[in-house]
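Board work, copied verbatim: SJCHGC04035 protein
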Amino acid sequence: ERHLNNVGVIHDGGPVDSNKAICMNSDKSLKEENLRLREVALKCEQRLHTAEEELQHLRANLSSCEALLNDYHGDAAAQASQLHILNERLKKTEADRERNQIQLDDVEQRLLEAESRNRILENVLQSKESNQWNYASSTPTNMKLGKHTRSLHLDLDDYLGQNDQLNDNIGILKDQKIAGTTNNDLILELRRELCEAHNEKKQIENQTEMRLNDLRAQLNQADATNRSLQAYLTFLKRSYASVFQPDLVINPSLFSPHQPMTCPSTTQLAANNMTTTTTKDS
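↓ predict structure ↓
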C-alpha cells in the first residue's frame, strides 16, 4: 500500500498530492496564524508593559498625594490650634480694652471734677481779689497788700496755665497712637499727671490760704494801727484844745485829718508803730 501510495504520488498525481497540498496550505495558515498571534502577543506585552508603567506612575502619584494630604491634615491641625490661640488672645484683648475703657472713663470723670473744683477755686480767688482791690487805699500797708494780691493773681494764672497744659497733654495722649504704648501705659500716665495736678492744686491752695491769712493779719494790724493812731491823734487834739484854747486861737487846719499836729511824742509814737508794722510785714 505504501508502494502504491508512492506510485500514486509520483506517477498518477491522485489523492496523495491533494492531501499534501492541503497540509501545506494548512501549515501556511498555521504559520500565518502563529505570526498573527505572536504579533498580538507582542502588542499585548507592550500594552501590559505600558499599563504596568502607568500603574507604577499612578502608585507614585498616589503616594505623593497621600503624603501631601497628610501634610495638609497637619497644617490644618496647626492652623486650627493657632486660630484657637488667636481667638483666646482676641477675647483677652477685648476684655482688657473694655477694662481700660472703664478706667479711662473714670479718669476723665475725675479730671472733669478737678476742673470744676479749679473753676470754683478760681471764682473764689477772683472774688477775694476783687474785695481786696476795693478795700485798697494809699497807705503803705494796703499798697503792699495790693502787691501780694497781684502776686497771688500771677500764681493763679500760672496754675491755670499749667492746668491747661495738663489738659492739652492728656488730649495729645488720647489722640496719638504711639507705637509700643498700651492703654495701661496711657492710664498710668494719666493717673500720674492727675496725681501731680492734685498735689500741685493742694500746694497752691495751701499757699493761697497762707497768703490770704497773712494778708488778713496785715489788714487787721493796719486797721488796728490806724484806729490807734486816729484815737491818739484825737486825744492829742482835744488835750491841746483844752489846754491852749483860753490863750490861743486854734487854727482849724490843726484839726484836719489830713494834716495832723507834729509834736515829738506823736512823731516818736508814729515812728515806733511804723517800725513795728514793717518788722511784722517782713
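Residues 2-83 form one domain.
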